[in-house]
Specification:
single chain, alpha+beta, seven-stranded antiparallel β-sheet, three-stranded antiparallel β-sheet, 62% helix
Length: 796
């Protein structure tokens, strides 16, 4: 396709360069076409392993359905102010939360009387066999007499005016039976009701549960929400003649993290870009110092566009997180262009010979890098599999760019240097090799102390303000957050309700002392409700007349009006409409429906939540067998973290094993000699070991982005080893050593500078690259020459 061009400083084939540039431009445009129809997602779930039978993926989705998920929480606490004053402040804040930007639900229509009326009206649907025993006792002559006497005393007391309606509707005190059905709610934090608002009360603290129409990940509008909160906060303080020193008013929501991360990432990008550009510029002027080398820096752009195009063609929904970090990892792509450039510089007048000498190690270097990233595809993490496709396609493109386009675009090179023996390494071999193997052994031992950070929020930036808020919430509201959720599920809502009943019965039988919260007693399945109605009807058919007579007799003797309780007794014979989730959502118990009946899953699965403590006893009780038996699934933060950590350990073990075997096999095929193959792979092994070892020594827990950066260390380490060991096969050259050094320095200058980032994910990536590449590079250019000389190999 390209005509042969002689490399010299006098002339360049402009026509061939234009053709090459045009072809390259068309190729990039073709890669860009699939991007027009792809959507990008910032969902962190793409960076989580699916787990065995997709249990991690499913549990993560279930955790997002917790009662407080997606809410805006505002904590008001003070060690000096009383609860009444805190209520005044809470009312001031809640009263101003009246816009979609920041709002609080109006519960003024929900009154205790309405709840009692609802339960009494639904009594036929809710009456179980045990309840019939209580009804039998309440309808005895002694109980009727006792309850009416107590009612009389209550009516003539100061509180009597508010009880008139309740007593008229329930002379038998049936409410004592049906209010008990929501008694498990006492295991929730205490509610403080004021001016139609429900505040959650804690120790010297109140909590407002608000909402916002702004998505949690919308950092741009998240600023507006936080500004609105600060405005409301200041007005509430002024209205109550208080200052910020008197109490703590803190907001906790996903918006806080989104805004903090957006802000720090912008600062990091600016800081890192300046450092990286300066470092690359300095490297360019110190090593290349000619225009011909500029084409080298096009390699990452070609690789990234190819990776994006291939990924967009395969995946219609791409992870923005993966693409962002994938672009960083594509720093490996510049290495092939660097090696090709210096091979041409070594033979400026014989392009074919230069390409013949460099093509084999470049192609095998690309193959080992591809093998390293291909190993990521066995990961159970969807985003990592996308990253694998992105990186492999980009590396292949970078390799072909280096071999086909760099020779066409480079028209000037540095002055030639005389050939020298590359392995004339300075220093005492015994000291250098001894130090290297001591470092390798020590790092391997230290690596065993590594553990995984499975706290997802730690993947993002947490400012000092957020840390302070987290400490306050941990102190005041930890009992709300340390809950596990038992999801009863079913293809239909009635099936879910049946399983919820079974689960609640099992809890009462085997975990009776556990502080659990469930709506099973007030929302039975259709079959149970029908059975309850039958029991209710049979009971009153036998007892209604006698009970009415007894009530009338006792009421008259106590001075009640003749027909004061007739309406109440008439309602006993009236059957209520069927109790369903829809009618429950419209009832005075609607807040419970919001808490315990989440939206159906993506597969249409219906679910009901029961709250339980998050402890080992609960985790150990709900084994897979028990969950299957009851038709439930237990999820909690502690269980999720434990499962995630085990899966990540398996994932990294699979990846390192597969990657190591593939890279070692390819290198052995290249050299066809065990000694050379082992030496070529040694820098990669050394880089990985030192990386894990130093992270262990510094007690830095591993996260997903440390793992993501490992293929870069393995791939580049193998490349360095291949090019250095390859010098035994042909005449050694300082150009190769220089190319290896510059490859490592460009990677460090371009991506190792991420170690200066404040954002944890970027910092994790930078730390891994910085440690791993530095170790692999030093091993390749300092240690490896001494190992190659041990047996007088090649040209030593």
């Amino acid at each position: 396709m390209f005509s042969r061009k002689t490399h010299n400083h006098a002339a360049a084939d402009r026509k061939t360069q234009r053709r090459g540039a045009l072809f390259l431009l068309l190729f990039i445009l073709v890669c860009a076409i699939p991007l027009l129809s792809v959507s990008f997602s910032e969902d962190i779930s793409s960076m989580l392993p699916a787990g065995e039978n997709n249990e991690i993926s499913r549990d993560f989705k279930l955790l997002q359905k917790s009662p407080l998920a997606g809410k805006v929480l505002i904590s008001i606490s003070s060690e000096s102010l009383g609860e009444l004053k805190l209520v005044d402040v809470a009312e001031s804040i809640a009263g101003r939360m009246n816009s979609p930007l920041l709002s609080v639900e109006d519960n003024s229509t929900i009154q205790p009387q309405a709840v009692i009326n609802f339960l009494l009206r639904q009594a036929p649907n809710l009456t179980t066999g045990k309840d019939l025993e209580k009804l039998q006792e309440l309808t005895s002559t002694e109980s009727i007499n006792k309850n009416l006497i107590n009612a009389k005393k209550l009516l003539i007391s100061p509180a009597g005016m508010g009880m008139r309606t309740i007593i008229a509707a329930d002379p038998l005190n049936l409410r004592s039976v049906y209010l008990h059905k929501i008694s498990s709610l006492q295991n929730l934090p205490r509610l403080k009701i004021s001016s139609g608002q429900y505040f959650i009360a804690g120790k010297n603290a109140l909590l407002i549960v608000g909402e916002s129409n702004i998505p949690m990940t919308d950092s741009k509008n998240g600023y507006k929400l936080l500004d609105r909160f600060q405005e409301i906060k200041q007005k509430a303080l002024t209205e109550n003649n208080l200052t910020e020193a008197d109490l703590n008013i803190e907001i906790m929501s996903g918006h806080c993290y989104s805004v903090a991360n957006s802000s720090v990432i912008k600062r990091d990008i600016l800081t890192i870009s300046i450092i990286s550009i300066c470092a690359l510029g300095l490297l360019f002027f110190m090593t290349f110092r000619n225009r011909g080398a500029l084409s080298i820096f096009l390699a990452p752009g070609v690789a990234i566009m190819t990776g994006l195009g291939v990924c967009a063609f395969i995946y219609k929904d791409m992870s923005a997180i993966v693409i962002g970090f994938g672009a960083v990892l594509m720093g490996i792509s510049i290495d092939f262009a660097v090696h090709t450039y210096f091979a041409l510089a070594e033979n400026p007048n014989d392009e074919q010979r230069a390409l013949r000498d460099v093509s084999r190690p470049v192609l095998y270097g690309a193959a080992t890098s591809c093998a390293s990233f291909t190993a990521l595809y066995i990961s159970g993490i969807p985003g990592i599999r996308q990253l694998s496709v992105f990186s492999v396609s980009g590396i292949i493109a970078a390799c072909f760019y280096a071999l086909l386009f760099v020779p066409r675009f480079c028209n000037s090179f540095p002055a030639g240097e005389k050939r020298q023996l590359v392995f004339q390494a300075k220093g005492n071999p015994k000291i250098i090799l001894g130090a290297a193997f001591i470092l390798l052994a020590g790092s391997s031992v230290a690596a065993l102390t590594n553990n995984f950070d499975t706290e997802l929020k730690n993947l993002g930036y947490i400012s000092k303000e957020i840390s302070k808020t987290e400490r306050i919430f941990q102190e005041k509201w930890n009992q709300m957050r340390s809950r596990s959720m038992l999801f009863a599920y079913g293809k239909t809502m009635d099936e879910a309700l049946k399983n919820n009943e079974k689960a609640w019965a099992d809890i009462n039988k085997n975990l009776g002392d556990v502080k659990a919260v469930s709506i099973a007693p007030v929302l039975p399945s259709a079959i149970t409700a029908q059975k309850n109605i039958t029991n209710w009807s049979r009971f009153w058919q036998k007892r209604k007349a006698k009970t009415e007579e007894q009530i009338s007799k006792e009421a008259k003797s106590l001075g009640f009006a003749t027909h004061a309780f007739s309406p109440a007794m008439n309602r006993i014979s009236e059957l209520p409409p069927a109790l369903s989730v829809k009618s429950f959502r419209a009832s005075p118990l609607a807040p419970l429906a919001k808490m315990f009946i989440p939206a159906a899953g993506s597969n249409g699965e219906k679910q009901i939540i029961t709250l339980l403590p998050d402890n080992k006893r609960i985790m150990n009780y709900y084994t897979p067998r028990k969950e299957k038996e009851l038709g439930v699934r237990l999820v909690s933060q502690s269980r999720f973290k434990a499962t995630l950590e085990k899966e990540m350990e398996r994932d990294i073990l699979r990846f390192i094993t597969c990657s190591g075997l593939l890279v070692a096999a390819l290198i052995f095929i290249l050299f066809r000699e065990l000694r050379r193959a082992l030496l070529a792979v040694f820098p990669a092994v050394f880089g990985v070991a030192v990386t894990f070892g130093l992270l262990g020594i510094m007690q830095i827990p591993l996260n997903i982005f440390h793992i993501v950066a490992l293929p870069l260390v393995i791939g580049l380490g193998a490349d360095y080893g291949i090019f250095m060991v390859f010098q035994e096969i042909r005449m050694p050259s300082l150009w190769t050593v220089k190319a290896v050094k510059i490859s490592g320095l460009t990677t460090l200058a371009g991506f190792g500078v991420l170690v200066f980032a404040r954002h944890p994910s970027l910092h994790s990536l930078g730390t891994t690259v910085c440690i791993g590449i530095t170790a692999a590079l030093c091993c390749a250019v300092i240690v490896l020459p001494h190992l190659l000389r041990l047996e007088g190999g090649g040209h030593a």
